[in-house]
Amino acid sequence: MNNITSIAVFCGSKSGNNPSFIQQTELIGQFLGVKKITLVYGGGKIGLMGCIANAVLQENGKVIGVIPKVLVEWEQQHDGITELLVVENMHVRKKMMYEKSDAAIILPGGNGTLDELFEMLTWNTLKIHEKKVFILNIDGFYDALILHFKKMQDENFLYENWQERIIVCNNAGEFISYFSNNH
């Protein structure tokens, strides 16, 4: 983890109902901005996406957005970021985000966030990359998913211990502490 200069953040284009989601997302963004770690994210200006981008920018950090043409209107592309890359489709978006990042943070989100998480984990299993994945389990948002990882492990459906690839943090402070102690 010593050479992390950019982090992909996968999160919702909506903010959710819990105010902690926004507060914790802002703290992560501020930390990335202060540490000059480039944010690579989905390119939207709304929801948790916009929140993380704005928090990084507030600290004069670098933000790269990768958005597929089909989502430019839907997610309301963020025109105030350092670099906005408009790509052909979701597959190109995910691949480019992986290529431009050294690790990933999963914040609360919906189907798209889970799709990105599972593709990244699958690529880890297949040794396409060796990137650390952090899940921010804010207020237990991912409790059921973590139980499912344990179930897959217990039922012998995983090729390795899921905890070797996924670092679960319950809040921004735990992530910042882990990152600071290992980077």
Secondary structure elements and pairings:
Elements: E1 6-10, H1 19-34, E2 38-41, H2 47-58, E3 63-68, E4 83-87, H3 90-99, E5 103-106, H4 111-125, E6 132-136, H5 143-154, E7 166-169, H6 172-182
Parallel strand pairs: 1-2, 1-5, 2-3, 3-4, 5-6, 6-7
Helix pairs in contact: 1-2, 1-6
Q: Could you write a compact summary of the structure shown?
A:
The chain has 183 residues and is an alpha/beta fold.
- CATH architecture call: 3-Layer(aba) Sandwich
Gyration radius, rounded: 15 Å
Overall spatial form: globular
| Secondary-structure element string | EHEHEEHEHEHEH
Counted beta strands: 7
The figure for the number of domains is: 1
Strand content: 15-25%
Lateral strand order in the biggest sheet: 4-3-2-1-5-6-7
The biggest beta sheet is recorded as: 7 strands, parallel
Secondary structure class reads: alpha/beta
CATH topology: Rossmann fold
What is the overall number of helices?
Answer: 6
| Average predicted confidence as pLDDT | 93
What is the terminal separation in angstroms? Answer: 6 Å
Under CATH at level 1, the class stands as Alpha Beta
The percentage helix is: 40-55%
